[in-house]
Design a protein that fits this description.
- By secondary structure, this protein is an all-alpha fold.
- It has a domain at 41-80.
- The chain has helices at residues 7-21, 30-53, 57-79, 83-87.
- It starts with 6 loop residues before the first helix and ends in a 9-residue tail after the last helix.
Length: 96
């Protein structure tokens, strides 16, 4: 396996989550970031289940709870409004 092959998916995940949270300045790819963040929620939830099902004490004690924490944090970011929606003031209805 090439040396950067393990880092590439993690770097992509970081960029997706940072973009979804509005911490990356580029406005393009909002659909990819929205679905990508939910994909990361599902993958980290599956990882948590597999870590807790493992017979390894290390996976049960360390990687299982870390995967649950990652799932919760990704879900918080995925459920949050987009950066554009947070920046917009609420619409005012003119009164007569």
């Amino acid at each position: 396996m090439p040396p950067g092959a393990a880092r590439t998916p993690w770097l992509a995940a970081v960029l997706v989550v940072l973009g979804r949270a509005g911490l990356q300045g580029d406005k393009r790819g909002t659909r990819l970031r929205r679905w990508g963040t939910w994909f990361l929620v599902a993958v980290s939830m599956l990882a948590a289940l597999l870590n807790f099902a493992s017979q390894s004490r290390w996976e049960n004690a360390i990687f299982g709870p870390l995967s649950v924490l990652l799932t919760i944090l990704c879900a918080i970011v995925a459920r949050s409004p987009l950066a554009d929606e947070r920046a917009m003031p609420p619409a005012r209805i003119p009164t007569a």
